[in-house]
């Protein structure tokens, strides 16, 4: 391949270096801007920037794979703190550089800003790398870097120190292993630059490599971690199904709506697109988009094109087949309910925009993705009528649920407007009107509700008893939950509104605490309530308003005194301290087993209780739990429980 003129970045212009010392000085000047302003090149000098070095080198290897010359990439985290990336591509060219006849092309790639990857003749070549800064930046920010190239039957080596200073020219160090070609870069980040630390995080690296393997069908990526405390670990990622395998992977813990994963692709002179998709029975919209192998978490033109065409194609199909009547109102969001899709585009000049530079701005990509989806997805639906029918049915249900939920919301809103500040009959409100210090306990069962009312601090603690059994049969659909009188009282008591209209500042309590039994029924109710909060009052979850109370699981007596123990861990600790404790422990089955004094002391008293604050992740998990556990698919239920065993224990399901 002919090397074209590159931006020399000022190094070596006009003068020809006479010796290595001189060229080293020029090179240092060339890379100086990187060391002066590392943030401009890698975003930050924290952990994200540190890992950027790895991505940059791996991207070079992946580029080589994307051009069809490399089939295997190995990434190693070395016990001595270094990172080694190796590929079996052509090897960076070793001959003299046309512009700097005294130096090898490889040296220029490693020491001149923007030199790497900017060469190349006809055809289009895409390049990964969020900033596309090239491997010279990695060199500039490393205290030591070793470059090894197997090419033309020879093994070449070159070493750099102190931010990219070559120690001597590229050297032949014997023969290359039989028939081998490829590049190996080993580097040690400079701790004077990365002052927060130079330790790589194996999980971060491993996850990224797995995604790269998904995005590059059949590319073998081997990750070796020598730093693991349990000893060296090797993982190999290779996916013959590419992004279709990625969709399968994402849906593994969910219940797919149908077995098949759909796939289509298209390419034009300067850009290409691949889409894989499958629906599950859940309620999330999971579109994951990538541009040149980089996750575009803020979306952009490719996502816009996909969404628009998806809505159009599915509606057209449904009308054509008589599945969609005039009165049916189906919108894009209904069609996307439960969708897991990957859209991956490759383009020559990606424009990254947005807050975190992860939004794809290229307008031409929208048109490509939209046209492709319009054509290929329509074909796919025609060829897969039973899958198409299932997804149309699901979209119809989602549309109806959306309408019903809106009606229910309007009803509750009108009701509360009519009734003014009237509170639900069952609510034993607190006297304080200061939301910050007020708490609402949602208590399962009337009898436990009664105990809670007696046990509370009436000034600052309100009690709303909920009859769980009723709620339980209503199952997962939110529109049905909204018709439930218990839930309506809950909405009224909280007073912050519903859905998109939730106004956190109107929330009447600073803490909303779910108090349910530690048994199976209790955990169902807890999960239902969390699902409800997640879907209809997510702002409260995000704001940290939602808590789960922890009534003790055991009681025992020491002399005349009754002692409560939160869980098995607590019990174990207790026994450690009192190995001679001879009373048998009492496992508390329900809130009902405690009298109001006990309930107050163990679960409600601010000084003594422990509350679990619910995170969005936990609430989302409850939502997933609900959709999977209520679904028909036994296998996915089993899988889900296995893969979420740790989290599910929190939900006691
Ligand atoms: C472990 C990192 O950098 N591999 C790699 C880099 C290059 C090539 C092959 C390559 C590219 C070309 C021709 C070309 C690079 N070459 C250049 C430059 N792995 C890693 N593997 N021959 C080999 O693009 O034309 C920059 S990167 F500029 F020298 F061609």
Low-pLDDT parts are: 1-19, 116-125, 472-476, 644-653
Termini separation comes to: 61 Å
What is the CATH topology of the largest domain?
Heat Shock Protein 90
Please report which band the strand proportion falls in: under 5%, 5-15%, 15-25%, 25-35%, 35-45% or over 45%.
15-25%
What is the overall pLDDT average? Answer: 85
Q: Based on the structure given, which CATH architecture of the largest domain is correct? A: 2-Layer Sandwich
Please, what is the CATH homologous superfamily of the largest domain?
Histidine kinase-like ATPase, C-terminal domain
Structural domain tally: 4
Question: What is the share of helical residues?
Answer: 40-55%
Bound molecules: ligand 1YM
**Rg, nearest Å:** 31 Å
Counting DSSP H or I runs of 4 or more residues, the number of helices is 22
Shape: globular
Helix and strand composition category: alpha+beta
Main beta sheet? 9 strands, mixed
CATH class of the largest domain: Alpha Beta
Q: Using DSSP, what is the number of strands?
A: 24
């Amino acid at each position: 391949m002919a090397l074209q003129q590159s931006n020399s970045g000022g190094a070596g212009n006009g003068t020809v270096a006479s010796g290595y010392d001189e060229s080293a000085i020029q090179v240092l000047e060339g890379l100086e801007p990187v060391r002066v302003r590392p943030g401009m090149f890698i975003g930050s000098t924290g952990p994200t920037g540190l890992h950027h070095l790895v991505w940059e080198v791996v991207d070079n290897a992946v580029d080589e794979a994307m051009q069809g010359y490399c089939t295997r990439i190995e990434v190693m985290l070395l016990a001595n703190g270094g990172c080694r990336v190796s590929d079996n591509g052509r090897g960076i060219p070793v001959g003299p550089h046309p512009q700097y006849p005294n130096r090898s092309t490889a040296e220029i790639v490693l020491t001149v800003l923007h030199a790497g990857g900017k060469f190349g003749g006809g055809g289009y070549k895409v390049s990964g790398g969020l900033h596309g800064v090239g491997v010279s930046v990695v060199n500039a920010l490393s205290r030591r870097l070793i470059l090894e190239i197997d090419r033309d039957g020879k093994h070449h080596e070159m070493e750099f120190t102190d931010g990219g200073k070559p120690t001597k020219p590229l050297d032949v160090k014997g023969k290359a292993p039989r028939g081998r070609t490829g590049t190996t870069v080993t580097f040690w980040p400079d701790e004077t630059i990365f002052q927060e630390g130079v330790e790589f995080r194996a999980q971060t690296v491993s996850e990224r490599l797995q995604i790269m393997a998904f995005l590059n069908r059949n590319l073998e990526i081997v990750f070796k971690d020598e730093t693991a405390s349990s000893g060296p670990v090797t993982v190999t990622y290779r996916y013959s199904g590419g992004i279709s395998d990625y969709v399968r992977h994402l849906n593994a813990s969910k219940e797919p709506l149908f077995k098949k994963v759909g796939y289509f692709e298209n390419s034009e002179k300067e850009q290409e697109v691949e889409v894989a998709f499958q629906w599950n029975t859940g309620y999330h919209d999971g579109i994951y988009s990538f541009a040149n192998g980089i996750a575009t978490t803020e979306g952009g033109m490719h996502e816009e094109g996909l969404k628009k065409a998806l809505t159009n194609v599915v509606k057209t199909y449904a009308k054509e087949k008589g599945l969609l009547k005039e009165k049916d109102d189906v919108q894009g969001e209904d069609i996307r309910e439960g969708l897991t899709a990957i859209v991956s585009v490759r383009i020559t000049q990606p424009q990254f925009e947005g807050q975190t530079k992860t939004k794809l701005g290229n307008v031409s990509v929208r048109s490509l993705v939209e046209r492709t989806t319009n054509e290929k997805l329509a074909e796919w639906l025609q060829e897969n009528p039973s899958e198409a029918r299932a997804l149309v049915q699901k979209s119809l249900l989602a549309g109806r649920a959306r309408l019903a939920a809106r009606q229910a919301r309007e009803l509750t809103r009108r009701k509360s407007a009519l009734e003014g500040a009237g509170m639900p009959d069952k609510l034993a409100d607190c006297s304080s009107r200061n939301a910050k210090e007020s708490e609402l306990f949602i208590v399962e069962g009337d009898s436990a509700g009664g105990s809670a009312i007696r046990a509370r601090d009436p000034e600052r603690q309100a009690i709303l008893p909920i009859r769980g059994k009723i709620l339980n049969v209503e199952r997962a659909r939110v529109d049905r939950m909204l018709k439930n009188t218990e839930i309506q009282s809950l909405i009224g008591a909280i007073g912050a509104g519903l859905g998109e209209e939730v106004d956190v500042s109107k929330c009447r309590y600073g803490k909303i605490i779910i108090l349910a039994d530690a048994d199976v029924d209790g955990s169902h109710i807890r999960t239902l309530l969390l699902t409800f909060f997640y879907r209809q009052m997510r702002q409260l979850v995000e704001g940290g308003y939602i808590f789960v109370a922890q009534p003790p699981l055991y009681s025992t007596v020491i002399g005349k005194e009754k002692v409560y123990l939160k869980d098995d861990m607590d019990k174990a600790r207790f026994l450690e301290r009192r190995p001679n404790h001879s009373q048998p422990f009492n496992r508390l089955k329900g809130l009902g087993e405690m009298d109001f004094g006990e309930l107050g002391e163990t679960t409600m008293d601010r000084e003594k209780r422990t509350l679990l604050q619910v995170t969005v992740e936990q609430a989302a998990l409850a939502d997933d739990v609900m959709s999977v556990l209520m679904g028909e698919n036994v296998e996915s239920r089993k899988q889900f429980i296995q893969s979420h065993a740790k989290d599910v224990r929190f939900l006691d399901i």
